[in-house]
Automatic annotation (TrEMBL):
Keyword annotations from UniProtKB, A to Z: Nucleotidyltransferase, RNA-directed DNA polymerase, Transferase
Superkingdom classification of source: Eukaryota
Statement: the UniProt record of this protein carries the keyword Transferase: yes
Name of the molecule in the record: Reverse transcriptase domain-containing protein
Lineage, broadest ranks: Eukaryota, Viridiplantae, Streptophyta, Embryophyta, Tracheophyta
GO molecular function: RNA-directed DNA polymerase activity
Organism of derivation: Tanacetum cinerariifolium
Length: 71
């Protein structure tokens, strides 16, 4: 949230857009899209149950600095 606030982002969930800068004179507008196939997500508790019943799981995390992308 701090990053969004520092870049004056306005999120419009209904229109699926994120406006950076002033709403009247945006510097950049990101238009989201719906995936063609639904993304399957499960909760941590459901994952624990599945793993305890013998299912395999993979845990991962993505980190990085996106600051360079904006300038």
């Amino acid at each position: 949230m701090d990053w969004l606030a520092s870049h004056r982002a306005t999120i419009d969930c209904y229109a699926m857009t994120v406006i950076f800068g002033s709403v009247r004179q945006p510097e950049f507008v990101y238009h989201g899209s719906s995936p063609l196939k639904s993304v399957k997500l499960i909760s941590a508790m459901k994952a624990r149950t599945l793993i305890s019943h013998g299912c395999q799981g993979v845990k991962g995390a993505v980190t990085g600095d996106v600051g360079e992308w904006l300038y």
